[in-house]
Amino acid sequence: MQGAKGQDPALQGLDVYIVGGAVRDALLGRPAGDRDWVVVGATPEQMAERGFIPVGGDFPVFLHPRSKEEYALARTERKSGRGYKGFTFHTGTDVTLEQDLQRRDLTVNAIAQAADGRIIDPLNGCDDVKARVLRHVGEAFCEDPVRLLRLARFAARFHDFSIAPETLALARRLVQDGEVDALVPERVWQEVVKGLMTERPARMFEVLAQTGALERVMPDLVFDTEIAAQLHCAVQAHLSLAQRFALLCHKTPSPEQLGRHVRAPSECVDYAKLLPVLMQALAEYDDEVDTSLDIIERMDGLRKPQRLLDLLNAAVCILPVDVARWQRHLDAVRSVDAGAVAKAAGGKPDQIKAALRLARREALMRACG
Prior knowledge:
Layout: H1 4-7, E1 15-19, H2 21-28, E2 36-40, H3 44-49, E3 53-54, E4 61-63, E5 70-73, E6 76-79, E7 87-90, H4 97-102, E8 112-113, E9 119-120, H5 125-131, E10 133-134, H6 145-157, E11 162-163, H7 165-176, H8 185-196, H9 202-211, H10 214-217, H11 225-236, H12 241-249, H13 255-261, H14 266-283, H15 289-298, H16 305-315, H17 323-334, H18 338-344, H19 349-368
Parallel strand pairs: 2-5, 10-11
Antiparallel strand pairs: 1-2, 1-8, 3-4, 4-5, 6-7, 8-9
Helix pairs in contact: 6-8, 6-9, 11-12, 12-14, 12-16, 13-14, 14-16, 15-19, 16-17, 17-19, 18-19
């Protein structure tokens, strides 16, 4: 960041700081992600005059005219209603950097860096980074239920960090006071996605369970030590979001219903619905050609072969599956020219169906040969 203001005319004369995750990750020696900036002492009009593009809804946030990085005016907030939207913001030119940092969730996210590289750390976040502790900034932590989700997600991302006991106590109060019930499913899903794609996704759900929030934000989800281990397997296997979500939900009585409740994308809902079906079929699998063909057809593997392979690779985290063998089976069945078989069968639906079944069965037998 050093020299940024001197090189960038859009920032000349502005009091700007990098804040939050980029500073934290730099202190941890981790790769830098997106940078967030805070501007102190400026007005929305001054930002617009410099070419910054306003994008904020509840408070002034701007995109840099060239880099498109986000620059937010320093602000304070106070509770004015229930839920994570129940806040009133103030962004006057009198708001200081320290006041802006004070409204943040965790001390490790409340560190700023000036243009000359100087660290501003009024809340001792650097000490918590060194001690590997996730600690709330202030009592206002228990006013915003999103902070509970973020705490759980950060616990998954920084799995070598402990959570301060007093922070867990405030998180539990969020649940007890009913604030967590104001979370909309879409906001829950945003954080679940981030948590599932960390190196230790199970820890997110462990923290949510510890605080009593899990049953409130993901009703009927069955989460236990076995699923925790299966999610760890998914990380080791570099599985996709849809595969990880299916593993998370596979013991839940109605995974499809849960997926729809949190507004998960249709692919994630499909994978969550189909993995238990596949698991049941594999548990009863007798290694017979007809059974293999039944499973492929039942899972719609002829039309969606990649989905079936994805589900098989997810199933590996639960029970032994020879995915390479299933790949051969799938390739063999799909190699049958359905059009040619239908033509040879004379065009009658029942005859075509029987001929296709026979041709695919013979192809499978050759592959198993």
